[in-house]
Structure formats: structure tokens, C-alpha cells
Design goal:
InterPro entries: AMED_5909-like (IPR048152). Helix content is about 60%, strand content about 0%. It is mainly alpha-helical.
Length: about 80
């Protein structure tokens, strides 16, 4: 899978009204997908790893309740 393919695969993501738990699961899934892409799309390894890191960070923020923004401002790859 390419980076572009991965972005298509994970979109559109949860509804903005989804629960925090659904968003955490989505971000964990995105991190996994983008980590795998980093190993299969050599032209976009660094960008895919960045996407994985961002998704992992958002999952952690929401899990630890560090993010004080509403779902309308959540990151979508």
C-alpha cells in the first residue's frame, strides 16, 4: 500500500460526534496502517512515519485526557 492509498483507506474516519473511545481506536488504527506503509512505500517512509507518530500522539492525548479541544478540531490524516 502506498501513502496515498493509506490516507484513502483511513478516511473519512469517525463522525465528529463519535465517542472519545472511537477516536482513540481510530488513531491507533491509523498509527498501525502508517507504520506498515513506512515499510512498503520507500519513497514516503519518513512521511508515513510522521503520520504514524501524529496518530499515536493523538491517541495518547485522548487516552490521557491531555487534549482539551473538541472533536471538531481533532486531526484527520
Amino acid at each position: 500500500m502506498t501513502l496515498a492509498g493509506a490516507r484513502e483507506y483511513v478516511r473519512p474516519g469517525p463522525e465528529r460526534s463519535a465517542t472519545r473511545k472511537e477516536w482513540i481506536s481510530f488513531y491507533q488504527h491509523c498509527a498501525t496502517v502508517f507504520r506498515k506503509v513506512a515499510g512498503t512505500d520507500p519513497r514516503h517512509t519518513h512521511e508515513a512515519m510522521a503520520e504514524a507518530a501524529i496518530a499515536k500522539d493523538w491517541a495518547a492525548k485522548l487516552t490521557e485526557d491531555r487534549e482539551k479541544v473538541g472533536p471538531e478540531a481533532y486531526y484527520i490524516p
